[in-house]
Amino acid sequence: MRNCNKENMTKLVEALESDRYEQTDSFLRDLIRDKYCCLGVACDISGVGAWVGRKYFAPNDSSETILPLDVLEWLGLDYDEYDSIELPVNGDTTAMHMNDSGDSFAQIADAIRKTYLEED
Length: 120
What we know:
The protein is α+β, with helices and mostly antiparallel strands. The chain has one domain (6-112). The protein has helices spanning 6-17, 38-46, 69-74, 79-82, 95-100, 105-117; strands at 29-30, 35-36, 50-52, 55-58, 61-63, 88-89, 93-94. It has a three-stranded antiparallel β-sheet with strand order 3-4-5. It has a two-stranded antiparallel ribbon with strand order 1-2.
């Protein structure tokens, strides 16, 4: 189990498992179809920034495609430790890669749960 803010990581897992968000790929948010990638869901529920179109603006960073550092910190992850803004899961892969490879939000939520919330 990796270190994280368990409360916020649980919120992400629950949001991914809910019917609130429809899935897209390649961008954090598809504004026209109102869909999100898994990292876009993390941005949306974090409340640390705001959407302007499909770009998420956080206090110290903004992005259309990767997890802003402020959201990474909200999840309790340290960029220097993980060297990734794609949310590492399952050893060598990331939530972003799973999302853009066609894995469902439920599959991504399960990988996040196993990586960050379940005891080894």
